[in-house]
Design a protein that fits this description.
Strand 8 (111-114) and strand 9 form a beta hairpin. The chain has a single domain, classed as Ribbon (Umud Fragment, subunit A). It has one helix at residues 16-47; strands at 3-4, 7-8, 48-52, 67-71, 82-86, 92-99, 104-108, 111-114, 117-118, 131-135, 140-144, 164-165, 169-173. The termini are far apart. With 175 residues, the chain is of the alpha+beta class. The strands form 3 sheets. The chain has a 7-stranded antiparallel sheet with strand order 3-4-13-5-6-11-12. The longest helix is centred in the N-terminal third of the chain and has 32 residues, at 16-47. It is found in: Cell membrane; Membrane. The chain crosses the membrane at residues 30-53. This is Signal peptidase I.
């Protein structure tokens, strides 16, 4: 043992093999962490998303500030689906698909008619204003909020939204 001013100091023994194993475990942990982060980023940006309802346009089905999961790739738009859509200003809005390509949608005395037949909609709230017949174009969809009270839902009844392209559909509500 070495002496320093009369004190005995312990001899340090370094296990080089153990030190390199610790370093290797550290790198493996960091790589694993980075892979998990990349996977989470991929899943939340391209496969699934968590969305928060902003407003009352989907009452009573979805409440303001309600949270739901959206599937971004595992869906095919169908009548009755609740979807997230990019509006012309780039905001995400939540609506229900009412009309598919080539459908005719009209509102008479508060009743939505689809291809001249009244639509059974037990999920709606409010009474919409009348609307002249709209023919949904190829690759387009007619969307409406479940709250049909005039002024509560910005949807395909409004000329600024009109029918929407399938490319504007971000995803479908899962749960």
């Amino acid at each position: 043992m070495a002496k320093l001013y009369g004190a005995k100091l312990p001899q340090l023994e370094v296990d080089v093999h153990k030190s390199s194993q610790t370093t290797k475990k550290g790198w493996v942990s960091w790589i694993r962490f980075i892979i998990i982060l990349a996977l989470l980023y991929f899943l939340t940006h391209f496969v699934f998303a968590v969305k928060i309802v902003n407003g009352h346009s989907m009452n009573p089905t979805l409440k303001d500030h309600g949270i739901f999961i959206v599937s971004k790739i595992f869906f095919q738009p169908e009548r009755g689906d609740i979807v997230v859509v990019k509006d012309p200003d780039g905001f995400d809005i939540v609506k229900r698909i009412i009309g598919m390509p080539h459908d005719k949608v009209q509102i008479i005395d508060g009743v939505v008619y689809l291809n001249k037949q009244p639509l059974n909609e037990p999920y709606i709230q409010g009474v919409p204003d009348n609307m002249a017949e709209v023919i949904v174009g190829e690759g387009k969809y007619f969307i409406m909020g479940d709250n049909r009270t005039p002024g509560e839902s910005l949807d395909s009844r409004d000329p600024s939204i009109s029918t929407i392209s399938e490319m504007n559909i971000v995803g479908e509500k899962m749960f």
